[in-house]
Design goal:
With 221 residues, the chain is mainly alpha-helical. The chain contains seven helices and no strands. It is 70% helix and 0% strand.
Amino acid sequence: MRRSPSDGGGPEPLAPSWSGVGVLASAAITAALSMALWHSRSLPGVDRWVLQRVAARGDHGLRVAQHVTSALTVLTVVAAVALVACASFGLRRADAAALALLSPVFSVVVERGLKSVVARREPGASAAHFPSGHVAFAAAVVLSVVLIVRAARWRRSRRVGLSLAAGVLALGMMWSRMADTAHVFTDVVAGAALGTTVTLAVALVLDHAHGRHRLRLVARV
């Protein structure tokens, strides 16, 4: 994979300089929503307003939204697996591979725990649904893509293209989970914030563990 001729030597850290602020901001959003919706059994006004405008209409519209969610879920999982493979065998960076693997897994683990603790339920629902696990997973994969291609020092056009494509995937997942009425607006916002928090935190931990000299996988002949 080609890199810009102006790139210097030495591996780039996974976490950008703003990662600490990003962790604090996204964690604050997740915490604030969690406290506001603690054991809630009603929908805030913003959720009702967005739901009225985004939720699919009729059985046909609902089926389409569900099919979109299924397709995006498969695409996200494929992207996650491909990212681990690319980081391991293409970039030969153990830290990037660990980020691609751990951030989605940890996001789902934390999401499951938060779901049971916050225990938010819509009127008539029997299961907790805050935050959105699909969105948390997608956000972790998308941000991992952005961080890894940045650390790989790929050409700017390629980085921008991949980042935009990944962003569309995340936004599509947020929309589909609201359109198929599985989640409401605050669920998907918290899911995105949670995935962001976990991914940036994992990147910072990996950078700290590896120091300024990043581990690279040794190619086997």
